[in-house]
Amino acid sequence: MKKLSIFLSVFLLVLIKAQNLSDYKYILIPAEFNDFKENRSYGLGKFLERSLKSKKYVVLSETKSQWPQDALTNPCKILIADILDDKSMFRNKIILQFKDCNSKVIYSEKSSSMIKEFEPGYQDALKQGLVKVPVSNPSPEIEKLAESKATEEVKRNDDVKTTQTPIAQRFKNGNLSLQKIQIDDSQFILVDGNSSVPYATFKSTNKTDVFRVKLASGESTIGYYENGNIIIEIPKSNGNFTKEVFSAN
To answer: In DSSP terms, which residues pair with 207 in a beta bridge?
Structure first.
């Protein structure tokens, strides 16, 4: 009976951890982990990415211009992955962690490998740790929590007087209405609420208010501000350009 009780306790603990993790859809994998930098990465990031995708998670990189709009506007829908080096003399050991938008660890799993070589050994340890990671099954409660936190953030920003460019602003071209989202001081995107791919990505140049622009089609062009409007020069098949004007709402 005692053994059965212990088994049920362990099972429930795993179930609780799995439930918390599987509630999420988006997981950000950093370009490098603090414990596995540069030539000591051992391919762990790519290994983790492949495994999470196979479990139906949407993996995000640190390049925010490639994020879906709901991830950009609601960062609390995203978990941040980390792999720690659980140092040992005789085994390659790791700790796989996932943190929420408040840096709270919601899932942690230790694992190890008997393989002594670093790269295959650490990858094998990660493979063991990923066994218990559940398939993504996004929870409506996480969606509501993220929306609530986003609303709180907007209210907080509204209460603070600032001269900085607003985080989001609407621009229209005919029936096309796009939202401008400032990624950082040097880049912003125009997004259509009906698409997860940015309509256009703008990056600063050495000239004020002139930007290098990458369109959703993959084509590159230029854009600039003119009388408060955003202008994009759209390339045509004959080599010419048309001037598209997006007026601020």
So the answer is: none
DSSP character string of the chain: -HHHHHHHHHHHHHHHHHHHHHT--EEE--SSBTTB-GGG-TTHHHHHHHHHHHTT-EEE-S-GGGS-HHHHH-GGGEEEEEEEE---SSSEEEEEEEE-TTS-EEEEEEEEES--SHHHHHHHHHHHHHTTPPPP---HHHHHHHHHHHHHHHHHHHHS---SPPSEEEEEETTEEEEEEEEETTEEEEE-TT-SS-SEEEEE-SSTTEEEEEETTS-EEEEEEETTEEEEEEE-TTS-EEEEEEEE-
User: Residue 153's pLDDT is what?
Assistant: 53
Please name which of 130, 124, 88, 89 lies closest in space to residue 109, comparing C-alpha atoms. Answer: 130
The HSE-up count of residue 170 (CA atoms within 13 Å, CB side) is 7
What is the Cα 51 distance to its own chain's centre?
Answer: 16
- What pLDDT does 112 receive? 95
Q: What is the separation, in whole angstroms, between the first and last Cα of the chain? A: 69
Residues of the chain with pLDDT under 70: 1-19, 141-168, 194-196
- Would you state the pLDDT for residue 236? 83
- Predicted local confidence at residue 10, as pLDDT: 45
